[in-house]
Amino acid sequence: MAFHIDKLEKRWIFMVAGFVLMAWGIQIYYAVQGWHPPSNVEVIDSAQLHLATGVGGDEFSEQNIGVKRDADGQLIVTMVAARYGFYPQEIELPQGEAFKIRIASFDVLHGIYVPLTNLNMMLVPGYVSEATTMLNNLGDYPMLCHEFCGMGHAYMFGNVKIVPQDEFKL
User: Fold this and answer.
1) Nearest-CA neighbor of 65 among 168, 122, 54, 140?
2) Which 3 state secondary structure label does DSSP give 161?
3) Which tens digits make up the pLDDT trace of 73-115?
4) Residue 132: CB partners within 8 Å, gap ≥ 6?
5) Secondary element (H or E) of residue 27
């Protein structure tokens, strides 16, 4: 008794096998290229985050959070996420200028998401989350926590205001 596979079924088998091989090829290609998600593994003591004597210096102490420029003139946004808010709650940034955001969680897993932009990060306690981006459209954008962090999660929000370059004052 001979085993028979219909011509149309053979085509579908070859097409599916081709897609699987193509997906594997793409994965292998990117693995060989060394492209990985951005990682900034910087450990910090969350319990000492707000103190000037904490591990990592006083970068996240209350008087140092907010928007500032570093020695090279790059904008740095330093923030803290804690139940149930972002600190500072409102930040103002110039239109079309790249900035680096450095944010740490004080207590539990949080997230930061600014709709209609590419700013979306997970904030893990004990680590500093860092990203560099640019916002080009003027206006106010909500800053939301996208990881459930407790009963007050729905009230954890802030605001990002993008102003024209000539109106931005630091």
Assistant:
1) 54
2) strand
3) 999 999 999 988 999 999 999 999 999 999 999 889 999 999 9
4) 98, 99, 100, 101
5) helix 7-33
* 42, 101, 160 from 74: Cα distances, Å: 20, 11, 18
pTM: 0.73
pLDDT at residue 38 in the model: 58
DSSP track, 80-143: EEETTEEESSEEEEETT--EEEEEEESSS-EEEE-TTSS-EEEE-TTBEEEEEE---S-EEEEE
Query: CATH number of 46-167: 3.30.70.250, 2.130.10.10, 2.40.40.20, 2.60.40.420?
Result: 2.60.40.420
